[in-house]
Amino acid sequence: MKSVAFHTLGCKLNFSETSTLSRTLEAEGFLKKEFEEEADVYVINTCSVTENADKECRQLVRRIQRRAPESLVVITGCYAQLKPQEIASIPGVDLVLGAAEKFNIAEHLRELSKGDSAKICSCEIEDVEGFHASYSVNDRTRTFLKVQDGCDYNCSFCTIPLARGHSRSDSIEGVLENIKELSQAGTREVVLTGINLGDFGKGTHGGKKREETFFELIQELDAAEGIDRYRISSIEPNLLSNEIIDFVAQSKRFMPHFHIPLQSGSNEILGQMRRRYRRELYADRIAHIKALMPHCCIGVDVIVGFPGETEELFRETFDFLHELDVSYFHVFTYSERANTLAIDMPGAVPMHLRHERNKMLRNLSYQKMQYFTEQQLGNKRKVLFESAEKSGMMEGFTDNYIKVKTPFREEWVNEIVDWELK
C-alpha cells in the first residue's frame, strides 16, 4: 500500500479541498500519513496571496528532499496555477497540477514515476470549468464546506481570479446533499466557505445569469434538520445585504458572527483597489448588525502598505477601524503580485513602513478583541466543545466566537454546553 502526506498553505477553502483530495486518495487505497513522517507521495496544496506562501512552498520541497529523496512530490493549488513553470523548476518536484486537474490527482499518480522531469498538467484559467464540492473533516465538531469557487471581481491587488477562474458554485440541492452526509457523520457546526461566498448561485459552470442566491441558500440550510450551527466564513460588504443580516439575527442555526473584508478605511485607496463599495456602506453594514445583534462578533480583513497609501491615508484607515464597533482584524501586508494592476501603480510604500503599519493594526485588533470579550462577561452563551485535549484542557467557541478553555471532560466532546462567560 502506498502512503501519502498532505500540507496546506493558505485559506480555509484550501483546507477543505485538501481534505477532499485526501479522501479521494484513501479511497484509491493510499495510506494517509502525517506530513512530518516518511511517505511515498507528498502533496502540497499552495496559496499565492502573498510572497511568503511562495517561499514556504519552496522550503517544504527542500525539507522533503532531505527527508525522503525518493518520494514523489505533487504541487497543486493557486501557486501551481499561476506559476507552473517556476514550480516545475524546483528540484524535487515531480508533478504540478493546475486548477482544472487537482481533483484528478489519483489518475495522474498512476502514471507518475520518480526521476522523470517534472510533469505540468495545467490549462489557461479561462478554460477551468465545473465546480468540485469539498469539505474538511479533521474532527466531527466543525467542518469547512466549500459552496462557491472563483471570482468575477477584478480587485487591483488580487491574483485569485487568475488562479481560481470565474465565479461558479454548487447548487442548493448539492449543498443540502453534502449537509446530509456531514450530519450523518456527527458534524455539529458547518462553516460555509468560498472565494466570493456572497456571489453564490451562478451554477456549476458560472455565467452572468444567477440561478439561485446566497440568501436562498441560507434559508434552506436554516430549515434543514441535522446541523446545529452554521457560520458564514467571509462575505463582501456589498453582497452582505440587510436582508441577510436580518435573517441571521432571528435564525436559530446561523451564528451571530460575520467576517467582512474592508481592505482599507480610505475611500481613495478603496477606489485604487477597485473595491465595489466605499467606507460609508461598510459602516452602515456594521451599524445594522450591531443594532440587531449587539453581541455579534465581527472580523475584518485589512491590507496595509498598498501603493499610494500615505501616512495620512493610513491614518484614515486606523481612525475608521478605531471608531468601528468590530471585534478583531486579519491584517495583511501588501505584497506585489505579478500580473495585477497594482504592481504598476506609483507610490510604493517602503517595506519597513508596511510592517510598522501592520503592527499598529494588530495591536488595535488585540485591544478590540479584549474589549469585545469584556463586554460579554456575565452573559450565558452556548459553547461547542472540541475533541482535542491539550495539556488536560479542552477548547470550544461560543456562538459569537469567543474562545473558552476548561479542564477536559470526555462527556462534553462535540457537545453544546450553556456557559457563563467569566
Tell me the layout of helices and strands.
Elements: E1 3-8, H1 12-27, E2 31-33, E3 41-46, H2 51-67, E4 72-77, H3 78-82, H4 84-88, E5 95-97, H5 105-110, E6 119-121, E7 134-135, E8 142-146, E9 148-149, H6 160-164, E10 168-169, H7 172-184, E11 189-193, H8 214-223, E12 229-232, H9 242-250, E13 257-263, H10 267-273, H11 279-292, E14 297-304, H12 311-323, E15 328-333, H13 351-376, E16 380-385, E17 393-398, E18 403-407, E19 416-420
CA-based shape: globular
Q: Span from first to last CA? A: 51 Å
**Fraction of helical residues:** 25-40%
Instruction: Name the poorly predicted regions.
Output: none
Radius of gyration: 22 Å
The main β sheet shows up as: 6 strands, parallel
* Strand elements, count: 19
**Adjacency order of strands in the biggest sheet:** 2-1-3-4-5-6
The computed structural class is alpha/beta
- Total of DSSP H or I helical runs spanning 4+ residues: 13
Average pLDDT score: 93
The share of residues in extended strands comes to: 15-25%
Any overview of this molecule?
Strand 5, helix 5 and strand 6 form a beta-alpha-beta unit. 35% of the residues lie in helices and 21% in strands. A six-stranded parallel β-sheet has the order 2-1-3-4-5-6, sandwiched between helices. The longest helix is centred in the C-terminal third of the chain and has 26 residues. Helix 7 packs parallel to helix 8 and helix 9 packs parallel to helix 11. It has 422 residues and is an alpha/beta fold. It has 13 helices and 19 strands.
